[in-house]
Structure formats: C-alpha cells, structure tokens
Amino acid sequence: MDVVLFLKAQLIGLSIAAPVGPIGLLCIQRTLDHGARIGFLSGLGAATADGVYGAIGAFGLAAVTRFFVTLAAPLALCGAAFLVWMGCRMLRTVPTSELASVPDIGGNWSAFASVFALTLTNPATIVSFIAVFATLGGDAATTTSAALVMVCGVLSGSALWWLVLALGVAGVRHRIGPRLRLAINRCSGLFLLGFAAWQLATVFR
Prior knowledge:
- This protein is mainly α.
- The protein has nine helices and no strands.
- The chain starts with a helix and ends with a helix.
C-alpha cells in the first residue's frame, strides 16, 4: 500500500514540476550559464517548496493553509518583483562565448534558496495539492506514515524532473553558440516579465 501511495505521489510531483513555466525557464537558463549543478539545485529549490505545500495538503494543516491564503496578495507581489528582477537580469546578460562568464548568482545555496522562495510565493499551489491528494483516497493521509510517504513521493518526483532537465540541457550546452544563448536569454527575460505582469494583474483584479 505504501509503495503504491508513494508512486502515485511521485507521479503528482512529476506532473506538477514538468510543465514549462517561469521556474522551468529559470532553471534552463541557469543550466546554460552555470552548468548542471546550479540548474539542478535551482530545480531542487522548487521541488522542496512543492514538498512543503505537499506536506500542508497531506497532513491537512488547515490553519497553515488559511495563513498562506491570507498572505496570498503580499506573497504574489514579492514573487512578481523577483520575476521582474530576474527578467531584467536575463535581458542584460550578453554572452561573449559558448561558455562565457555570466553574472554570479551567489553559489549553490543562493541558487536553491532563490527558487525555493519564488515557488513559495504562489500560495494557490496549496489548493492544487489538497485537491490532488483528495483523489488518492479518502483515508490516504489519516496516518502520519501515509502522509510522510506522500510528501516524500511528491518531493522525489519533482526532484527527478529537475535532475533530468538539468542533465539534458547540460548535455547540449556546449553546442549552443553565443547568438542562440543571447536569444534564449532575451526570450526567457521577456517571458518572466510577462508572467510578472500577469501575476500583478491577478492581485489587483
């Protein structure tokens, strides 16, 4: 039973992480600029945030859920501001060679923490996890062990996606010239700015 529950939760984590959005583009761009390790650690930050929200859903922490929902607007504003900063940073980055030195992101911890914080600024994810976990069965998380299995499954599934993505992008990194990298940076920057505008619009709507 625990194995089946773990695999179902792992599939949930994988399916939540896989769609390419601002986090995915950020991890791809960081992998291109800094290598697979930084790209994976950035994705691991998102996976850890997914694990936090998964824990809230699995353990049924209603008070914590209400707390995050209450802070939805401030968190969304912080997330939008961070996306604007990252988007502008990408637009200004001009690679001069295939593996050009680019602005430092502050090391392994900074790569992890920045994406972790950015992912946490989307409290609506809590609702998604609660809804998805409800489909695993009415008594799926009535015990602590079941809830822990679900959280570990979500975390490992999400982390697995980011590992595959980072290794895949790193594998073609040496073949991408400065002109294409510049185009990727510009497109990624514009996308992040557009997503930030959309997030601000949802806050003030």
